[in-house]
Amino acid sequence: MSRASRSPALDAFSANFSDNALGPVRTLGRTFRLSIVAMLQMALDLVRGQLKVREAVVMAWYLVSVTALPAFLMAIPFGVIVTIQIGNIINQLGAQSLLGAASGFAVIQQAAPLAAGILLGGAGASAIAADLGARTVREEIDAMRTMGVDPIQRLVVPRVIAAAVVAPLLAIFIVVVGVLAAFYLAVTMQGVGPGSYWQSFGSFASQRDMLLAMVKASIFGVIIAVIGCQRGLEAKGGPRGVADGVNATVVVSTVAIIGVNFVITLIYTVFFPLQIG
Prior knowledge:
The chain has 277 residues and is an all-alpha fold. 86% of the residues lie in helices and 0% in strands. The protein has eight helices and no strands. Helix 3 (99-137) runs antiparallel to helix 5 and helix 3 packs antiparallel against helix 8. The longest helix has 41 residues, at 8-48. The chain starts with 7 loop residues before the first helix and ends in a 6-residue tail after the last helix. Keywords: Membrane, Transmembrane, Transmembrane helix.
């Protein structure tokens, strides 16, 4: 069938299917390709000693500055909510001494890395997308390529490194604040003894759980940075395109870390079942 003989309805359907159904698949492919190229470029820069350390440190400090206070404010409700919800069930079972273990598992394995990822996705990745998007629409990225400067090496790799380093630090901070908030509430309102709380916490929580949280957070940081960079480098259409890229970054990064968290948790649970330390 020639293009001239096709009906307008069929053309509209084909265009809509290509944009709405195949478009996200193509975008996912480009994002995955950018992540592979960025990882290879990072390894190559590390071997050559050409890592943009200053750019990474500046970006890491910015990410810390915009996420530290929200992380503190988010960690306290996490610890309180977990203690209240789990504490009510444990009290009915007469196992108040296990509240420390339950709070520790919830905060360390799930709440801390997810909170760190969500904070970086909301504050950090949106800033990355806005910065690179503004440079793209001002044709600064094209000018860099014309001058022989690789935008991935100069802009993407430092941001990926910064997010991968800051995310575990945020997770550790959230763990400390969340566990202390849970401990305070358990002792003052749930009637749990301080010694029994920390004994159950130490019996069930392990260094492996903390390592899992840090690995999760680091993976989330890489995913968030790559998505922010990809959306920023592909921004078009002026300020409206930059704003759309920022919005898409927040939504896609949040969905991505939730899905990846589910997969990692499932794999970890299969190979490392719950054990008493």
